[in-house]
Amino acid sequence: MREITFMQATLEALSEEMAKNPKIFVMGEGIGKRGGNFNTTKGLFDLYGPDRLCDTPICERGFVGLAAGAAMTGTRPVIDFMFADFILDAAGEIINQIAKIQYMSGGRLKAPVLLRGCIGIGHSAGTHHSGSYYPMYAHFPGLRVVVPSNAYDAKGLLKQSLNSNDPVLFLEHKSLLTKKCPVPEEEFLIPFGKARIVQKGADVTVVALAMMVHQTLEVCKQLEGEGVSVELIDPRTVAPMDIETILDSVHKTGRLLIVDETFAPCGIGAEIAAQVNDRGFDDLDAPIRRLNGAHSPTPYSPPLEAAVVPQPDRIAQEIRDLMAE
Amino acid sequence: MNNLELEKKLDLYRGMRTIRECEERLVRSHQRGLIPGPCHTYIGQEAVAVGVCACLRNDDVIFSTHRGHGHAIAKGLHPRELMAEVFGRATGCSGGRGGSMHLFAPEVGLMGTSGIVGPSILQATGAGYSFKVLKTDQVSVAFFGDGAVNNGAFHEGLNMATIWNLPVLFVCENNQFATEVPFHYSSGNPSVAARGAAYGLPGVEVDGNDVLAVYEVAGEAIQRARSGEGPTLIECKTYRTRPHAEGMDDYSYRTREEVDEWKSRDPILRLREILVADNESMKENLGAMDTEVKALIDEAEKFAEESPYPDPLTAEDHVFSANSRKIDHA
Ligand SMILES: Cc1ncc(C[n+]2csc(CCOP(=O)(O)OP(=O)(O)O)c2C)c(N)n1
Ligand SMILES: [Mg+2]
User: Fold this and answer.
1) Which residues, 6 or more positions from A216, have their beta carbon under 8 angstroms from its beta carbon?
2) What are the chain B neighbours of A98 within 8 Å (beta carbons)?
3) pTM for this prediction
4) Which CATH number fits domain B3-304: 2.30.42.10, 3.90.870.10, 3.30.2010.10, 3.40.50.970?
5) pLDDT-derived band of residue B329, with 50, 70 and 90 as boundaries?
6) Domain span at residue A232?
7) Is the minimum CB–CB distance between A96 and chain B shorter than 8 Å?
8) ipTM > 0.90?
């Protein structure tokens, strides 16, 4: 099978859906002729024209509020934020309006807005260009939150997002954008709330998202050599969260570690742990563990930056510690 | 404007009377404890919603505010569905999930009222963008108060509508207070209409208690929007003669005299005077119309009171599109 990058995969997905559905339009800064800061819309301006690839002024709240009204009146806006950090300027429009429109209208209106942006720590981007934020969005009813870890998932989930009637936050880790993997040419969609078992294993379940999937994979071989067989699960969407797949795995392994680049307090790991406690307590042979990024803004200097992200050796050690419990 | 045909003037009168009757009934219902939540009435401002919406087609859309009952009715929401919603009943326009500040009736172009000050401006701009992408000749209207013009949404929305030449009307109802804060305190520029120039769109000021004047100004702006000539900002100078919301104190920030003075400029009385001055026998017609409107609202209120509350088991319905939660896990 051919291999393409994460970036190419989402571009293909977007272009295919735009060709099929004339109601899709994209808004953002530099997404027109320029093709997007991360090449998210490269070449689309020539195919679909300026109304459907609309360059905006720097008014995040404004164009997200606009997207709400557009979605309510029959179009399907894709808002390309470049960096997900900028989404915060539009938080009220997302959380108070877009996420609630279906509900407060008693189902009479839909708000199929796709909000996409790059996340993740790396490349000394500094703290205004490094956030991930997905636990926060997953907290709110009415939003789908997608965090793919590879090109295949990114394509299938972006296509799903563009066919969903619910608003979706689609968050793309910067360090994954140029990573390649096999992606079929044929059409496929991946439903929300379906985890992927990245690697089967028998001794310990590790749940990881985005970049942390790759960081964990790096140490799996080594641990295998030490006699520890890791089952690695990538939930792919944090809202909805596929807790069933995690429970099934814990039933088998009896041990659970959640590795997450974002903050621990009130985070994804806390949520998964609570749900597994509720429904899988009898399966547990050891306390559930979490390994998170540091609870601090993201520093700039490379050694500091590396220190706030779970690195492979930390992940390996955490797994060993959990096996020793 | 006095040469507007009689039929149309009577429509405007009926529209304003319907809103007033409904609002006065809601005031009493609130006092009787029938309304579980907040209730911001539109009393005194009816000429704005009615004058603007009379120029719109059914497939044109409006976005409104916390003070949205008048806009909803003027755009065609049946008072029954409004009252039932405000009473929290299953038959309300939002099925009891919205309440007074979250009214939705897309089938008549009521795309929503909002508990947050500002978003109506952006959402109307978005509808205008939809119409551009879909290549239709629909028009979109944002209603908002003077309080919203100092919010960033105003700045961002007007600028975007102007640069993309969108078919949008920005209708500011300057009733001179945002809750208790006078507009002259919160704005460095006493004119909202004058701000249009800052964004490069026409800004027009109109007497918001003169329904014929509002109708004329809105009609022209809508015509411009529909024919591709872009957005307009309209400042309607008006006044609410009830407290900010029912049950709130009203004379800590303004005087009884001021309120009474504005009551004498009541938009319904003013149109009535014009109609009667033209033709003394009109009194009877208007009296008959008042009776009809009263009967309509009697019926609406009865409908609302007799309607069932929503089933608590449905409290989580409509968070996502139909059954998608299940589909996603299938
Ligand atoms: C973003 C936001 N801030 C504050 C409020 C609280 N609030 C509700 S109505 C209101 C005043 C609004 O004044 P204006 O826009 O002039 O409308 P009016 O009530 O006069 O119709 C305020 C401050 C709110 N609903 N939303
Ligand atoms: Mg006001």
Assistant:
1) A206, A208, A230, A232, A259, A312, A315
2) none
3) 0.95
4) 3.40.50.970
5) very low
6) 196-323
7) yes
8) yes
